[in-house]
Design goal:
This protein is of the alpha/beta class. The chain is built from 12 helices and 10 strands. The strands form 2 sheets. The chain has a 5-stranded mixed sheet with strand order 2-1-3-10-4, sandwiched between helices. A 5-stranded mixed sheet has the order 7-6-8-5-9, sandwiched between helices. α2 (35-47) runs antiparallel to α12 and α3 (60-68) packs parallel to α4. The longest helix has 20 residues, at 3-22.
């Protein structure tokens, strides 16, 4: 191969590799309870001139299993602290990450079901007895589902509720079961309960946070993540992101 042709070939190859690296888009796995809040945070992130990130919503447990099996997520924004720490223990992340928010569990009721929500145990028993189904996220996959079961047991409602439970892969799906009427009652995050889509079809009641383990939501950065993932990780800890989280009902560290 002539020298000039070889040089052109090497230069072209260098350009292709450089463009591929530059074009690498950060992929962020986000717990379903964060959907509305994260959408606003992502908009704020892009407004500062940052490149767009690819966002996938789902359950923290499913994302963790997928990352363990090689899924190319660069940043996990989890609904709890257990799954991110497990990724660190398995050598997938750069460290144990940080707690970015503390969530609140609520009960929601479909407006058309005519069920009254009250923090009176007597009224809650009436509501559960009247409900056709009660939607929760799978407790082994989603922290809000785990918290819901802890609450029901601590409040002495488990025995009357357990046979009416229907399980969803994540809290977003559990919420939609109530919105669509597949269930009359459900447990979800306050951030989802306050969203426009959900609030027009349901009403909600805050659950006593002393009756379930605090939902400390942690995020963790994977090894080899591109710069944009690191930038987003840092932005999630900014005053601007914390202000948005608080607006959606989260407490922040």
């Amino acid at each position: 191969m002539p020298e000039i042709t070889l040089r052109l070939f090497i230069f072209s190859l260098f350009l292709l590799v450089s463009q591929s690296v530059f074009a690498q888009q950060a992929i962020v796995a986000v717990a379903a309870n964060m959907k509305d809040a994260f959408g606003e945070i992502n908009t704020a992130f892009k407004s500062e001139g940052n490149r767009d990130v690819r966002v996938v919503y789902g359950s923290s447990g499913n994302f963790t299993a997928q990352i363990m099996n090689g899924a190319p997520f660069n940043l996990l924004i989890s609904a709890d602290g257990h799954f991110p720490i497990e990724l660190y223990r398995q050598g997938k992340s750069i460290d144990e990450g940080v707690v970015y928010a503390i969530g609140q569990l609520v009960i929601i009721s479909k407006n058309s079901a005519g069920i009254r929500l009250s923090d009176s145990k007597t009224e809650l028993i009436k509501a559960i007895n009247k409900a056709n189904k009660i939607a929760i996220a799978k407790p082994d996959l989603a922290p809000y589902g785990k918290a819901a079961i802890e609450y029901l047991k601590a409040e002495g409602l488990w025995n009357i509720a357990k046979d009416k439970l229907i399980y969803a892969d994540n809290v977003g799906i559990a919420t939609m079961y109530v919105v669509t009427g597949a269930a009359d009652l459900g447990f979800t995050a306050i951030s989802l309960a306050k969203s426009a889509e959900v609030s027009k079809e349901t009403n909600f009641m805050l659950v006593d946070s002393k009756l379930y383990e605090p939902i400390k939501q942690r995020m963790v950065l994977m090894k080899g993540a591109p710069q944009e993932a690191l930038s987003f990780y840092r932005f999630m800890q900014s005053a601007q992101a914390k202000s948005i989280l608080q607006k959606y009902g989260y407490s922040t560290p």
